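Form 12-C: Joint structure prediction
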Amino acid sequence: MPQTVASPARRTSIGDMIFEGLATGAGVLVLVLLGAIILSLFIGGLPAFRAFGFGFLTSDDWDPVKEIFGSVVPIYGTIVTSIMALIMAVPVAFGIAFWLTELAPAWLRRPVGTAVELLAAVPSIIYGMWGFFIIVPFMGTYVQPFVIDLLGDLPGIGFLFQGPPFGTGIFTAALILGVMIIPFIAATMRDVFQTVPPVFKESAYGLGCTTWEVMRAIVIPYTRVSVMGGIMLGLGRALGETMAVTFVIGNTNRIATSIFGPGNTIASLVALEFPESPAGSLKLASLLALGFLLFVISFIVLAISRMLLRSGAKA
Amino acid sequence: MRVSSYFTISALALALAATPALAQQITGAGATFPAPVYAKWGEAAKAAIGLELNYQAIGSGGGQNQILNRTVDFGASDAPMDGEKLKSGNLLQFPAVMGAVVPIVNLPGIEADQVKLTGELLAEIYLGKITKWNDPKLVEMNKGVTLPNLAIAPVYRADGSGTTFVFTSYLSAVSADWKSGVGASASVKWVAGNGAKGNDGVAATVRQVKGGIGYVENAYATQNKLTTTQLRNKAGSFVKPTLAAFVAAADNGDWKAAPNYAVSLIDMQGATSWPIVSATFILLPKDPKDPARSANVMKFFDWAYKNGADIAKGLDYIALPTAVQDAVRASWKADIKG
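Section 2 - Result
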């Protein structure tokens, strides 16, 4: 909400000036840092862009022996796992936030809310290990064989559910990512739902609205921008997540048609291949170029979300 | 304030002095494959000759980079560096210790070293050409063992690794299809299967997936009691992955003919040789910035050659033959500026 703030009283002293300088410096530092990171990634990746040209973006080949590198497989894996994770996480997170702000008994709100925040603080390696040792065997033994048998032979969509039940794969990675980002999104949603002025809700209840109608007609429209922000925060974490994904995605540089098939993400591929990439090699350049592309993807996601929000605000 | 920091410092100094002698530090970085044995050697050498090894297992490629930039005293690499690069980086390369790579499987009811495999079959499995454990080719090789009707789930190292370099070198040596289609490197373009991170990741994945097959360093397989297999060697006989078989392969290596000690111990002659054995290498600058530190590195490995064989054996690594050790010592004298 744009508000006019009265200008501060002009009483400059040395201390004020130093403080102003430091604060400005801190603000500028963020911009410089961001620019420097993007620039160094781009320069590092330049040999790869030069060697493969536009083909780097369109080739699904990743062959360290012949030194042919393309980015389609990790980009595809990154986007598909993140979107699937969002599809799983957003409804659950919404449910948590809805329950915590509107339905839960007052004495339960605080402990459950704290628990959600704690979940957000769990390091990703823990999710990775949990995924690898608990979820992967469970998926491989029960879920995947069952779904593959049930849906694998269906005409039309059967190809989405075929292949050997390794337990790992795109779907498992998305599931872990989904669990990881639920607390982020839920915590943000809860916080912003609480910012709705009670008088709005009370008026709606006074008109005879149900809880759900209040949620749909008052709370969500009022908090739409911040809710999208929370979802984007989750998406941002999902796009860049490395360790948890590495454990469960199967790490292949091929595009599988099945959602249970293995894949790779940009962050995971870079982490895995970086130690064995000699300085000055085309492989190292390609990995840096991938890092640059991840930056670009994150930027595009952010830009799209801003655009959506702006058009939503106008309507 | 000053007093308390004085006490901290003197306490620290006391703690340092309490370690035997006054340990001099040498730093190294690189290969993960020999890291366990370097760590043990480091402990023992600290007690024996007062040299403290600070070794960081950052991967062979990383080790090569670090020593080319001279940020460490020595680099370590599983794959030998090529001659051109050694020359331009002005580096001396010598072997430190040897190890073996073994296939592991997960087949219900089948015990260690029961299944017999050949390099060609391994290549076909990893190429996705053989997809069932009861494939006629596998059944024919394994008379007397009941192979189940299970899909084969090949597992490979997803992270770039020296183990993968050794394994794919072997597959390239025995299979023309593998050589032309995939090749040998620390990471390759895998055709079939799933990737897992690290030796432990491969082992855990194989353990979890029925019908799984993978490859790990022998030390890892022995310590975790994994189900290994037999392999057919060049002489045509099937061998089990035992220390004797690894030593036999190492003894058949032609160390003298190999430039920069980059000897291949893959698919060696000899009826008892295990076919996937490899040396791991140390890279040392020929014109050290600080000759004293390089001298300490040589002192460390000299000590390890003389006294480290038992430690290596205990971890299922193979010490270098004495003749090779002497040749390396001669190279140190000839090539490193003191």
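Section 3 - Comments
The mean pLDDT of chain A is 88. Residues 52-314 of chain A form a domain with the MetI-like fold fold (CATH 1.10.3720.10).
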